[in-house]
């Protein structure tokens, strides 16, 4: 197992050493920040678990920069996300488990293993004529290889269960899409998007029934069923549900801010306005944007 390396020679510096590659400098700086004697007390105190929220946050900030089409910001956010990988790898190296090179090597090997339609058994590129071009065929091949990997890693039937290996740490909406996609791979699926729309309506009616019955536990369960059906609808429509919800959030934020500004120009503030006044301003904002209809949520 790799062991933490010492820092021989002169005292470390935050500046690049002659000929030092950017990635090498980043790895060195992380090691220095984690040094118990002369590093940063906050960095030294962190654990795998304590920085998980930061890792997730940085991934979402990458997605946000892409959504906004801001490549300058994307460069910075990708660096922040890379730092999280370096941070985790450094802590693992300190524990004698693995290092950054092991992480990079593992994913490189996995890429070759999961692309037998691109690389041969020795990792060499296959001739163009031997490569499948049908995306559906490639996805089936990818899924089969992942299933083989899950079976090889697991012990007993649990690892080979049809829905095994879908990360529980995923956002619930994204995990719902993956669960439904896996089930669809076994043929357990609606025939088309219209059928899922009918299911969404059915689940909405069941939420209304639970609300009318005054049953909080049933309401929570039925709302969960409704959200799962919506995730299925997004999959059938070829829409990423997480991305769709992010866009919906952004649209609501934009329109709510515009509504507040519109009321402000009229000398009114949100706390002083009743719902009807806010609804009227909201509808005006939607008309200016070219949106259809009214209502607080649309």
TrEMBL record:
It catalyses: ATP + H2O = AMP + diphosphate + H(+). Residues 1-21 are annotated as: Disordered. Its EC number is 3.6.1.8. GO terms for molecular function: ATP diphosphatase activity. Pfam families: MazG. The keyword Hydrolase applies. The keyword ATP-binding does not apply. InterPro entries: MazG-like_dom, NTP-PPase_MazG-like_C, NTP-PPase_MazG-like_N, NTP_PyrPHydrolase_MazG. Residues 46-119, 195-255 form the NTP pyrophosphohydrolase MazG-like domain. Residues 1-15 have a biased composition (Pro residues). PANTHER family: NUCLEOSIDE TRIPHOSPHATE PYROPHOSPHOHYDROLASE. Belongs to the nucleoside triphosphate pyrophosphohydrolase family. This is Nucleoside triphosphate pyrophosphohydrolase. It comes from Methylobacterium oxalidis.
